[in-house]
Amino acid sequence: MSAPFVARLSERPLLGDGAMGTMLYGRGVPLDACFDVLCTNDPQLIQSIHAEYISAGSDCVETNTFGANRFKLGVHGLAGRVREINLRGAKLARDVRESMGRDVFVLGSMGPLGKYLAPLGSVEPEEARAAFREQAEGLVEGGVDALIVETFSDLVEMRLAVEAIRSVTELPIVTQVAFTDDGVTFLGRAPAEVVRTLRELPIQAVGANCSVGSSVLYDILEQVIPEAGGLPVVIQPNAGLPSRVGERLIYLSSPAYMADYAARMIAAGARMVGGCCGTTPEHVRAMRQALDRLVPGRGAAQVASARRARAEAVERPSLSTTTAPTLLQRKLERQHFLVTVELDPPRGHNIEKLVQGAKLLKERGVEIVDINDGSLGRVRMSVLPTAILVRDATGLDVNMHFTCRDRNLMGIQADVLGAHAMDIRNILAMTGDPPRTGDYVNATAVFDVDAIGLIRILSWRG
């Protein structure tokens, strides 16, 4: 007889909850604090967040124990409280479920150890198993319905976690891997390869979460489904990638955007969707409404037709200007496949080497080049004169990258006007890398706007 959680997954798609850390941060908990110990130090706060997600329509809530292993707790001097924190975290979620009278599942959250395994690091396999076993024991004792092993990149570490859990309980195990925006794990493993490896483990569901937003995880889902071998697939994206606003990182994907993708993911074959970093009860509420609108067996058709209807209802904005359209614009309008080559401005004032390289690319058939704008926070020649010099010397169409890091609103508008006057028509709007990654780590970033704000500025009509 299958566990209730597994049985429910086979009956109908489930909706998870959203971020715990985002909610705690929004309520004043510092980012460098130990979120897990709040299960004992401020249980009412944790329970209030569980209650908000259940009220928003979650079918499952995850315990506030993602980092509650001896290694991560040890950073805060709490290594001896693993059992207590995990047991308490599980009971808090269960108590909220019972008090609200809702039929939701409590999933015991387990994240990576936060330290590299040997030989890269100092943690031996048996130490890792012991740490995962200790955490799993607390969660099982607290009464979770299943364990969710999430945000892992190292499949060896995930295997150790699953083995440790299986030495404690036969409860269902959900495994979720973190991928980069390039569609591979941080160690370079492709989704199909990851799933084929995880399929060999005694798990009940497989999937991906965190690190990237809905669009990237949707693409990964399409690669995971054919390799899952009948295992239910669980997808829980971030609310996009974070954008810097002042000293804060803000996730900008709207509830409606994530709801649209949640429906698409279910239609594509996912059995459970939810949210990770940046998601809130509002995102979950919107996803609940989107999933409830899906008719079993007709979800894919409904989602596709709804998206077509919206696309047909929106008038395409005219890209015409007072000048002839650029080569880049013509190719995009005709939906031609496009290949460009990125070029970095020189670190000094001599541009001859860059121009010669651009001419060589043109001889090889390249028609468009991208000119970077201080990538990785490195000091280089300004992008605008570089783009002009390359274009005039080679005849290539240029796509000028334009970052917000070093310019306030006045500077942005001045440079955009200058680009227009010099007949630069292609601009790639970018937020920009923080200066601490580059040559002058103490330089001050501006970030009056991010890439989205820059697009709004570029769209203004005077």
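the 2nd protein, sequnce then structure:
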Amino acid sequence: MISIKAFRAIDNPSSCEKYIEGHRRLLESYGVAEIVGSNYDWVQNSGTYVIIVENMETGKTLGGTRIQLKSDKFPLPLEDAVGKMDDKVYDLVNEYAKNGTAEFCGLWNSKEVAGMGIGSIFLVRAGVARAGVVIAKALNIQSLFALCASYTFPIARKAGFIVESSVGDKGCFPYPKGKFTAIVAVNKDLEKLSYATAFERQEITDLKNNPVQTRVEKGPRGETKVFYDLMINSLELHKI
């Protein structure tokens, strides 16, 4: 069985280290670790929430992501990543920040997942994407950005993210380096999830209503049992 758990970064340094190490190894395999993964200031940011995927039997970290709230002290990661390519990125984020915004970022999963008999890469990505939207809603923000790789955008799209075509080349940037394409996307309706597919809307709503639960998730390679723990102490929220 695997678990998908949420926590505030400053409250769990050891799990943050596991998340960072796994993410770093994956970035190294693509030759972009120095470009993408060199800034870990978010570990000390009280407005960063981590969602981590683990094998409950072995304790091994299989993947994860972060939700980082926009604040005066901490810009969104996508601002640092592609803002210098188009100044309109800063204006875009600041406009959404008026009503509260954050970024779904740092998504990764281990390459071993597909061969471990616990489901496919799709399962981890989809599960974490759903969890991310649930956590964002719990934090009382109105929108959620994501800087997606071209191959992960279809999954984000199902969860309600749409391309923000007002920046870059119709939303696209050559990032982290020339041969890759990153897409600026935003989920602008976390309440009704009107841009999500009917299936994902149903799944996300279930996690909203039941943030601690065990369920069987279906992926292309079969089924696996997943324990979700997406509770965040309300007293911890927005202490930025």
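The mean pLDDT is 86. The CA atoms of residues 118 and 190 lie 29 Å apart.
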